[in-house]
Amino acid sequence: MKLVYLLMLPVVLIASSGEYCSSCHKGKIQLSHLKSKKEWKHLMMDGGEALKEIHKNNLDVVKYIQSDSYSKDEVSDYVDFFANNTEEQIAYLNQKKCEKCHGWRVGMLQTKSEWKSLSRSLVPLKKVHANNQEVLALINSESFKKTLPYFIKKISFHAKDYRRTSKQKRDKVSDSNQSAYTTYTFKTKSLNFIYKTKSGTKEDAKLVQRYLLKALKEHTFKKPLSITLIEGRWDTDAGNAFMFILTLSLAPVKRTKHIQLIIESDKKIYTAETMMTKSNGWAVKDKESRSMQTVISELLKEANMHIRNSKK
């Protein structure tokens, strides 16, 4: 047991008391919700005796509470915000549930006005999740309805103010210096796929086509279908590059690349776009945040949601 405690000692010395607790309790939110704010306050007032009783079967934790590294003030600060299940906190947790399936960009799937329209009716949200009983149960719950204003405020933070019209989308593509792109086209009876790239090769185009065809199997877009994927080149932020030089290559250089997907189906045009990021530095070698295969799948999912919502 002494050996285990000694091995854990570096962690104890580096981490705050709250972070030490979270190493077993799986994160700040889960730890905080174990007690109400009043109960946490009571636990902090007796010099750790109640906490030692709770952890009496874990001698490492008891020793930690008895050590100088333990701080009741750090624990109090760590659990303070999430200790009570306020409406704002519940809305935050509901948003995190959405992100498990849709990713952190879930708010960008709708415009701000579309998100706000949920305050009038939850029917559109239910239709999108018609085949997911777990999500429907959440939407129908009283806690979700009660905290809806906070949920809308949080999830719409990164949403766009408006959805561009078809003409605006075409104009944006035209203004993107098309002569700088290399274009590859793949055609079948039901699909016309155009891949525009500033640095990709023919082999890259074939790989992208394979990713697209695989991802399309998950959706039922109306045929005939025309899809254009526009891939920019990797660009480095000047400020980030300066930090790379300033830290003698210790700070990683972050590069971004714009990806846009345009779908023409049923005589209507829909668009979805995202940014890919890549880090490179002394300790990190070309680490991309997401693969192109994942990006294509996510963009198709977003475009499909736009199409379904436009038909309601």
What does it look like?
The chain has 312 residues and is an alpha+beta fold. The chain folds into three domains: 2-79, no CATH class; 87-155; 166-310, Heat Shock Protein 90 (2-Layer Sandwich). Helix content is 50%, strand content 16%. The protein contains 17 helices and seven strands. It has helices at 2-14, 17-25, 28-32, 37-43, 49-54, 59-66, 72-79, 87-102, 112-116, 123-128, 133-140, 142-146, 148-155, 166-174, 202-216, 238-246, 292-310; strands at residues 182-187, 191-197, 225-231, 235-236, 253-265, 268-280, 287-288. Strand 6 and strand 7 (287-288) form a beta hairpin. Helix 2 (17-25) packs across helix 7 and helix 8 (87-102) packs across helix 13 (148-155). The chain is elongated, with a radius of gyration of 25 Å.
Q: Key features?
A:
alpha+beta; 17 helices
Overall 3D shape: elongated
> Stretches where pLDDT falls below 50 for ≥5 residues?
1-14, 165-179, 239-250
For this structure, what is the CATH class of the largest domain?
Alpha Beta
Total number of strands: 7
Number of domains: 3
Order of helices and strands: HHHHHHHHHHHHHHEEHEEHEEEH
Fill in the CATH topology of the largest domain: Heat Shock Protein 90
Rg, rounded, reads 25 Å
CATH architecture of the largest domain: 2-Layer Sandwich
Binned, the helix content reads 40-55%
Proportion of strand residues? 15-25%
Major sheet summary line: 7 strands, mixed
Arithmetic mean pLDDT: 77
Distance between the termini: 63 Å
Structural class: alpha+beta
Oligomer, anyone?
A: single chain
The number of helical elements comes to 17
